[in-house]
Amino acid sequence: SRSLAVGDFNSDRLPDLAVANASSDNLSILLNTTPVTTTPPNIAISNTKITEGNKGRKNARFAVTLDNPSNETVKVNYTTADQTAKAGKDYRKTNGTLTFKPGQTKKTITVPILGDTLDEGNEKFNLNLSKPRNAKLGDRRGIGTIRDNDKVVPQLSIGDATVTEGDDGSKQAKFTVTLNAKSKDTVRVNYLTGNGTADAGEDYRRTKGTLTFKPGQRRKTITVPVLGDIIDEKNEKFQVTLSKPRNAKFRDKTGIGTIRDND
Residue 165: how many CA atoms within 13 Å on its side-chain side? Predict the structure, then answer.
């Protein structure tokens, strides 16, 4: 019988064959001169999300992977690029070259994220791969999302209103509702009138609804019809109450309406 062994006997990284001769005490080595053809691995990069801090920096980490290990050294370049996030303001510009030694399949690219206290919404930047060596680019772009942690919740206030009633028909009591700061979100709030010394249906018309502030808007008006009469009565009051704020909170949720008598 013969003994066989496979190995790289001449250090050319190709498999050779060693055969022990049965009729003598010597060994035959068959050198492989045919290169082994391998399929280059594909390189892919992940997306990542990170919540920014109020100061200093945090690190956004992108995973870069090979879909198969390689017996060759694999290299690929990388560089950041702006989307809505800006280098130097939201993140630190980062570039370089990743090196996968033979057999390695995963590497990490770290991009510093710069903290601030600005209410600016979530922002994005790219991390682009280029110039692969001994590999192909399967996915060349990772997207980094910087989640903002500085959302400012605006405060809602309603003012009072005074109107002199007429002898007939109706006049309008106008209540101003304001936000103390602009919002990037749509703000909504419900409103409803309520009796004081004035009665709905007799002195004013019951009114309810929902106010909507589009992003950037800060002022809205609620109009309540005040009913005229020829009755001699004291000044009377009713109220408009705000409720169920969305993307805001209350500073003052009750407006007082005063109806001045003219009889």
Answer: 28
Beta pairing partners, 188? 212, 246
Give the whole-angstrom CA distance, residue 83 versus residue 85: 5
* DSSP per-residue codes, 71-111: SS-EEEEEEEEESSS-BTTTB---EEEEEE-TT--EEEEEE
pLDDT, residue 28, reads: 75
Angle at 104 between CA 100 and CA 109, to 5 degrees: 55
pTM for the whole thing? 0.53
User: For residue 209, what are its two tokens?
Assistant: 């609804």
Distance CA 172, CA 149 (A): 43
Give 74's strand partners. 100
Instruction: Report CA-CA distances (Å) from 206 to 74, 224, 239, 242.
Output: 75, 8, 10, 14
**DSSP class of 42:** E
Query: Which domains are delineated in the chain?
Result: 42-147 (2.60.40.2030), 155-260 (2.60.40.2030)
Strands of the sheet containing 219-227, edge to edge, are: 219-227, 170-179, 155-158, 249-252
- For the chain, the straight-line distance linking the first and the last C-alpha, in angstroms and rounded, comes to 128
Q: Which residue has the tokens 């100061």?
A: 55
CB atoms within 10 A of CB 227: 19
| pLDDT tens column, 222-252 | 999 999 877 767 899 999 999 999 999 999 9
Beta strand 27-30 with 141-147 is unpaired
Q: How far apart are CA 205 and CA 27, in angstroms?
A: 111
Task: Give the whole-angstrom CA distance, residue 162 versus residue 240.
Answer: 13
- How many angstroms separate the Cα of 19 from the Cα of each of 1, 5, 13, 221? 11, 7, 19, 97
Q: How far apart are CA 79 and CA 59, in angstroms?
A: 15
